Amino acid sequence: MCLKSKKKGLSAEEKRTRMMEIFFETKDVFQLKDLEKIAPKEKGITAMSVKEVLQSLVDDGMVDCERIGTSNYYWAFPSKALHARKHKLEVLESQDPGCCFHVIIKVSYYRKFWLGAVAHACNPSTLGG
Question: CB atoms < 10 A from the CB of 21, how many?
């Protein structure tokens, strides 16, 4: 009788979080080929999905990318991520002081590396007031 491994792959969000950990832990600049070697070994992200995950992070402004000559370089530093979260929170708080904002802080495995903030503006009438 042959037993198949029921090992489950990482979700897209888990891959994104682990990719960000690579940047935040090393505080280094990488080329795609470097990340395709590092991510599978250190974070369990398949080499085939590294490019897609990286592009989604670049598209969302979480990872910076710069073309120098014929090469693309990628980086993300914790200080920029913290500044972006603070700025987003300030914008949300200043939009309508009379409105109720529920701020949900999502904390993943490594709090200091990855925090996401989501805000939802409530209609005051839904609060029973």
Answer: 18
3-class SS of residue 91: helix
**Alpha-carbon dihedral sign for residues 22, 25, 31, 35:** negative
Give Cβ neighbours of residue 10 (< 8 Å, ≥ 6 apart). 18, 44, 45
34-54, pLDDT tens digit by residue? 999 999 999 999 999 999 999
What's the rounded Cα separation, in Å, for the pair 84 and 79? Answer: 9
Class of domain 10-79: mainly alpha
CB atoms inside a 10 Å sphere around CB 71: 10
pTM: 0.62
Rounded Cα distance between 97 and 31, Å, is 44
The DSSP call for residue 45 is -
